[in-house]
C-alpha cells in the first residue's frame, strides 16, 4: 500500500526533476519570450537560430522560445502562461490570424510590449508589426512565371498548378493574390488546380502525386513555400515528369538545404527571399528593453528579392 | 466520517496524492514574476489552467460514463471539430444575419444536436449490431473528420470580432467564469448521476458484467446508448468552447483529444475494463495533466518533454490500476 501511495507522487517527482534542473537564480535582467508557431518548418528553424544567436550577444537577456507545433490553441495557452511570467518583451510569430488576436490583446493589456512577426492578426494588438509585403512577393514570382512561359512558348500561355499553404494565413492569401494580379491579365495562362498542403513538404508531395495523375500537361508548379515546391518536385521526379515543368517557391533560405541552394542546383527555377524579420525584431526589441523613451513605429516593412539561377550565383 | 474518508482515500487516493504533490511542488518551485509574486499560485494562472483544461475536462466527464460501461469513444476529437465548424458555419456563412439570440441559438443547437446524433449512431451500432466500441468509434472518428473537412472545404471558418453575434458568442464561451463554471456544474451533475441514480447503478453493473446484467433484466442497450449520446453531446459542447477560444472552426482541430480525455479518466482511477470509476477521479486526473503542463511551461521546459512526461504518467496510472485490482480486487 505504501508503494502504491508513493507511486501517486510520480507526476510531482517528475516535475521536480525536470523543473529542478531548470530553476536556478536568474542572472538575467530581462526575459524575452518568443512564441514560435511551428519549429518544424525550415523557415521557422532558421528564425529560431537567428533569434538565439542575436539575443545571445546581449548577456543580460534570457530568451525563451516556445513551440506551438502549428496548433493555435496550444499557442494561445503558451502565451497565456507567458503573460503570467510578466516578461519584459513578447515576440509572437502567430500561427493564425483570428485565434491569436484575443490573447495578444491580453498581453498588450498586461503592459507587455508585443512584437508581431511577419503574419498579421485581425486587430492591431501589438506594439509593432514587422511585416513582409507578401503581395509584392507574389507579384515578383508571378512576373517571373510569365517571363518563363513566354520564353517556352513564345507567348504568355501555359498551365499552372498551385500548392497552397495554410488557408486563412496572410502569407497564403497575399502570395496568391499577388501572383494572380499578374496572371489574370494574360487570358492564356491558366491555373488548372490548387491543392492545400499546409506548408508541409510531405503533404505537398502527396497532393502533387494526385495532381500528376489527374493533369496531363503542367508547365509551372507554384509552391507558396520552398518546401512545398520541393515536395511537388519530388513527386514529379518519381513519375519522371520533372523536366516537363518548372517549380517556383518562396522563402529563399540560405544554407545547404535552403531555397537558394535549390535554385543553384536547378531543382527550383526561382524563389523569393522571405526575410526572417529576426534582425529587425531584435533591433527594435532591445531598444524597447533599454530605452524607456523609445517609441517604435507601428509597422515596419522588410523588403524582399527574387532569386534566379543568375542571382543565386552571387548569393551565399 | 473520518473512517469513511480514510477508506475512500486509501482506495481512490492515488490521483489526489499526485495532485496534492504537484500543487505543493508547483508552489515551491514556482518562478516569481518580475514583480516578485509567486506565479503558479496567482489566481490568474490557476484559472488559466482551469480554462485550458475545460474542453478536455468536459469530454472526460462523458468518457468516464462510456468507459465505466465497458466501452470507449474515439470519435470525440472529430466531434469537437465538427461542432466547432458547424457553429462557425452557422454564424458566419449559413445564417449570417438575424437577431443575436436566433443566430447563436441555432448555431449552438445544431452543433449539440450533431454531436448527440453521432453519439446515438455509435451507441446504436454498438448495442444493436454488436460492433466492438473501439472499431465503431474508430470508424466514426475517421468518418466525422472527413465529413467536417468536406463541409468546410478544409478551410478554417474564422469568427468575427466585436458586436457581431459570433464575436459575442466567442466572448461568452471563452470567458473564464462561463467555461469553468460550465465544467464544474457538469461535473457535479455527472457525479450525482453516477452515484445517486438508478442509471449510475445500472451502468456500473453493466460495465462489471454485461451478461449478468442482461440476465437480471437491466436495460443494457438503453443504458449504454445513453452514455454514447451523452459523450457525443458533451464533445460537441467542448467544441463550442474550442471554437470560441480559437476564434474559428478548424476542421483539423481536436486530433488526439480523445487520447487526452481517456488519459485523464485513466489517471483518475477509472478501470478501462469497465464497472468502476468516479467523476471526482476524472476531474482530478484532468487537473493533474493541466497543472503538470502548467508547471513545466512556467519553467519554460521544452514542450516536447510535456508529452514524454504525460506518457510516463499514463503508464504508471494503468500499471497501478492493474496491480491494485490484481492484488486487492477492491479498487
Verbal overview:
The complex is a heterodimer of chains A (316) and B (331). Chain A is elongated and about 60 Å long. In chain A, the strands form three sheets. Chain A has a six-stranded parallel beta sheet, sandwiched between helices. In chain A, strands 7-6-8-9 form a four-stranded parallel beta sheet. Chain A has helices at 2-8, 10-22, 42-56, 72-84, 97-109, 134-153, 170-183, 201-214, 226-238, 259-264, 278-290, 309-312, and strands at 30-36, 61-67, 89-92, 114-117, 128-132, 158-164, 189-196, 220-223, 246-248, 271-272, 299-302, 306-307. The model of chain A has no long low-confidence stretch (mean pLDDT 89). Helix content of chain A is 46%, strand content 18%. Chain A is α/β, with parallel strands linked by helices and 316 residues long. Chain B has 331 residues and is an all-alpha fold. Chain B has 14 helices and two strands, in the order H-H-H-H-H-H-E-H-H-H-H-H-E-H-H-H. In chain B, strands 1-2 form a two-stranded antiparallel ribbon. Chain B is globular. At the A-B interface, helix 1, helix 2, strand 2, helix 4 and helix 5 of A face helix 2, helix 3, helix 11, helix 13 and helix 14 of B.
Amino acid at each position: 500500500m505504501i508503494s502504491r501511495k508513493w507511486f501517486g507522487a510520480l507526476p510531482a517527482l517528475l516535475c521536480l526533476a525536470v523543473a529542478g534542473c531548470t530553476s536556478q537564480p536568474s542572472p538575467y535582467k530581462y526575459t524575452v519570450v518568443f512564441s514560435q508557431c511551428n519549429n518544424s518548418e525550415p523557415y521557422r528553424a532558421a528564425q529560431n537560430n537567428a533569434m538565439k544567436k542575436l539575443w545571445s550577444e546581449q548577456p543580460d537577456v534570457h530568451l525563451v522560445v516556445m513551440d506551438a507545433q502549428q496548433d493555435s490553441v496550444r499557442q494561445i495557452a503558451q502565451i497565456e502562461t507567458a503573460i503570467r511570467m510578466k516578461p519584459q518583451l513578447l515576440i509572437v510569430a502567430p500561427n493564425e490570424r483570428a485565434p491569436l488576436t484575443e490573447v495578444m490583446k491580453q498581453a498588450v493589456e498586461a503592459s507587455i510590449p508585443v512584437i508581431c512577426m511577419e503574419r498579421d492578426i485581425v486587430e492591431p494588438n501589438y506594439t509593432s508589426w514587422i511585416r513582409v509585403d507578401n503581395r509584392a512577393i507574389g507579384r515578383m514570382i508571378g512576373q517571373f512565371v510569365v517571363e518563363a512561359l513566354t520564353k517556352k512558348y513564345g507567348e504568355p500561355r501555359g498551365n499552372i498548378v498551385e500548392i497552397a499553404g495554410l488557408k486563412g494565413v496572410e502569407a497564403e492569401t497575399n502570395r496568391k493574390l499577388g501572383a494572380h494580379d499578374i496572371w489574370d491579365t494574360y487570358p492564356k495562362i491558366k491555373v488548372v488546380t490548387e491543392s492545400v498542403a499546409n506548408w508541409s513538404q510531405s503533404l505537398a508531395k502527396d497532393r502533387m502525386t494526385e495532381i500528376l495523375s489527374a493533369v496531363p500537361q503542367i508547365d509551372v508548379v507554384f509552391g507558396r513555400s520552398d518546401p512545398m515546391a520541393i515536395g511537388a518536385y519530388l513527386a514529379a521526379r518519381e513519375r519522371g515528369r520533372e523536366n516537363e515543368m518548372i517549380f517556383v517557391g518562396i522563402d529563399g533560405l540560405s544554407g545547404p538545404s535552403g531555397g537558394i541552394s535549390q535554385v543553384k542546383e536547378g531543382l527550383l527555377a526561382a524563389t523569393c527571399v522571405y526575410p526572417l524579420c529576426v534582425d529587425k525584431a531584435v533591433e527594435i526589441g532591445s531598444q524597447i528593453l533599454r530605452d524607456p523613451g523609445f517609441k517604435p513605429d507601428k509597422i515596419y516593412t522588410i523588403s524582399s528579392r527574387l532569386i534566379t539561377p543568375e542571382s543565386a550565383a552571387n548569393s551565399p | 466520517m473520518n473512517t469513511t474518508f480514510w477508506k475512500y482515500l486509501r482506495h481512490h487516493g492515488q490521483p489526489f496524492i499526485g495532485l496534492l504533490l504537484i500543487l505543493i511542488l508547483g508552489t515551491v518551485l514556482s518562478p516569481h514574476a518580475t514583480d516578485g509574486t509567486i506565479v503558479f499560485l496567482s489566481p490568474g494562472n490557476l484559472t488559466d489552467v482551469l480554462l485550458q483544461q475545460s474542453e478536455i475536462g468536459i469530454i472526460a466527464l462523458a468518457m468516464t460514463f462510456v468507459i465505466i460501461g465497458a466501452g470507449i469513444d474515439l470519435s470525440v476529437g472529430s466531434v469537437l471539430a465538427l461542432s466547432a465548424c458547424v457553429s462557425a458555419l452557422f454564424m458566419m456563412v449559413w445564417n449570417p444575419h438575424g437577431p443575436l439570440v436566433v443566430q447563436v441559438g441555432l448555431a449552438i443547437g445544431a452543433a449539440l444536436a450533431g454531436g448527440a446524433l453521432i453519439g446515438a449512431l455509435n451507441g446504436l451500432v454498438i448495442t444493436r449490431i454488436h460492433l466492438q466500441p473501439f472499431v465503431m468509434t474508430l470508424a466514426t472518428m475517421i468518418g466525422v473528420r472527413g465529413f467536417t473537412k468536406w463541409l468546410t472545404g478544409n478551410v478554417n471558418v474564422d469568427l468575427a470580432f466585436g458586436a457581431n453575434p459570433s464575436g459575442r458568442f466567442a466572448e461568452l464561451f471563452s470567458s473564464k467564469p462561463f467555461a469553468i463554471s460550465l465544467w464544474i456544474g457538469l461535473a457535479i451533475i455527472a457525479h450525482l448521476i453516477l452515484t445517486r441514480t438508478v442509471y449510475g447503478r445500472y451502468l456500473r453493473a453493466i460495465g462489471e458484467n454485461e451478461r449478468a446484467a442482461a440476465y437480471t433484466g437491466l436495460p443494457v442497450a438503453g443504458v449504454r446508448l445513453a452514455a454514447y449520446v451523452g459523450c457525443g453531446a458533451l464533445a460537441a459542447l467542448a467544441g463550442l468552447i474550442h471554437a470560441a477560444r480559437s476564434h474559428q472552426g478548424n476542421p483539423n482541430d481536436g486530433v488526439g483529444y480523445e487520447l487526452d480525455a481517456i488519459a485523464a479518466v485513466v489517471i483518475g482511477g477509472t478501470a478501462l475494463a469497465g464497472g468502476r470509476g468516479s467523476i471526482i477521479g476524472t476531474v482530478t486526473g484532468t487537473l493533474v495533466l493541466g497543472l503538470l503542463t502548467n508547471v513545466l511551461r512556467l519553467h519554460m521546459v521544452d514542450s516536447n518533454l510535456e508529452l514524454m512526461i504525460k506518457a510516463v504518467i499514463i503508464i504508471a496510472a494503468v500499471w497501478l490500476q492493474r496491480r491494485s485490482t490484481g492484488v486487492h480486487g477492491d479498487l
